[in-house]
Design goal:
Blueprint lengths: L1 H33 L4 H21 L3 H12 L5 H28 L8 H40 L2 H11 L4 H18 L2 H13 L1 H6 L7 H20 L8
Helix pairs in contact: 1-2, 1-3, 1-10, 3-4, 4-5, 5-7, 5-8, 8-10
C-alpha cells in the first residue's frame, strides 16, 4: 500500500499538467468553434483532449489508495466539523477515483462491454459531493477565522471607537454590520493564502460536475476556463507545498 501512495504522490504533478492541457484544449476548441474554425481542426483538438483525458486516468490509478489513507488520518482530527467534512470528502474522492479507474478500462479498450456513460455519471456524482464537502470545510474555516479576528478587534481600544464614529456619521446598524463582515472576510482571505487558493480551486472545480451531470448547464468555454484555472492553482500547491490547505 505504501508503494501505491508514493507512486500516486509522484504522479500528481504530471496529472495536473495533463489536466491543465486537457481543459486548455476544451477552451481552445470552444473559442475556435465560435470563430468558425474548420471541422477538421475541431476534430483534431477533440481527439487531443480525449488522449489527454485518458493519460490522466492512467496517472490516477493509485489515487484511491491515497484518498483512503487520507481519510484514515482525518478520522483522528479533534474538530468534529473538520473531521466530518475532510473524512467524507476523501471517501468520496476514493470512490470517484475507483469509478474513474473502471472507466479507464473501458476507454482504453480493455473492457469493451462497459457502459462508459453510466460509470462517468457515477464518478462525477462522487466528485461533486467531494467538492461540496471541501467547500463546506472552507466556509467553516472562514467562519472560525472571522470570529477569531472579530474577537481581536473587539478587545482593542480602537475598534469600538471606530464603530461609534461610523454610526455617528449616519450609517445604519445593518449597513455597518455588513461592511464589518465584508472587511473581516477580505482580511481573513488576504492573510490566509492557502485558504484563499482552496476556496478558488473548489469554486472553479464545482462547475465541472454540475455541467456534466446536467444540474447546471454552462458551455465548454466555462468548463475550460474553470478546469484550467483550478489546474494552475493545483500546480501552485505542488510547487509551493505551504500553499496547500492543512490538515
Amino acid at each position: 500500500m505504501d508503494s501505491w501512495v508514493r507512486f500516486s504522490s509522484q504522479s500528481q504533478a504530471k496529472e495536473r499538467l495533463l489536466r491543465a492541457a486537457q481543459y486548455g484544449c476544451t477552451l481552445l476548441g470552444y473559442t475556435l468553434q465560435r470563430n468558425g474554425a474548420s471541422n477538421e481542426v475541431l476534430t483534431t483538438i477533440k481527439q487531443l483532449e480525449a488522449h489527454l483525458s485518458l493519460g490522466r486516468k492512467l496517472f490516477r490509478l493509485g489515487n484511491s489508495v491515497d484518498a483512503l489513507e487520507s481519510a484514515k488520518r482525518a478520522i483522528h482530527l479533534s474538530d468534529v466539523v473538520l473531521r466530518l467534512c475532510i473524512t467524507v470528502s476523501h471517501l468520496n474522492r476514493a470512490m470517484y477515483f475507483a469509478c474513474d479507474n473502471i472507466l479507464w478500462l473501458g476507454k482504453s479498450g480493455l473492457s469493451k462491454k462497459m457502459d462508459q456513460e453510466k460509470w462517468s455519471q457515477r464518478s462525477f456524482r462522487y466528485y461533486l459531493f467531494s467538492l461540496i464537502m471541501n467547500l463546506s470545510r472552507d466556509f467553516y474555516e472562514i467562519k472560525l477565522l472571522m470570529e477569531k479576528e472579530a474577537a481581536i478587534q473587539r478587545s482593542s481600544s480602537k475598534a469600538p471607537a471606530a464603530e461609534d464614529a461610523a454610526v455617528s456619521r449616519g450609517f445604519g446598524a445593518g449597513q455597518q454590520t455588513l461592511a464589518m463582515q465584508l472587511r473581516l472576510l477580505l482580511h481573513v482571505l488576504r492573510t490566509n493564502p492557502p485558504l484563499l487558493l482552496d476556496v478558488a480551486k473548489n469554486a472553479c472545480d464545482i462547475f465541472i460536475p454540475l455541467d456534466k451531470l446536467g444540474l447546471y448547464k454552462t458551455n465548454p468555454g466555462v468548463v475550460g476556463v474553470c478546469g484550467l484555472t483550478s489546474s494552475i492553482l493545483g500546480i501552485l500547491t505542488i510547487l509551493h507545498p505551504w500553499l496547500k490547505l492543512k490538515p
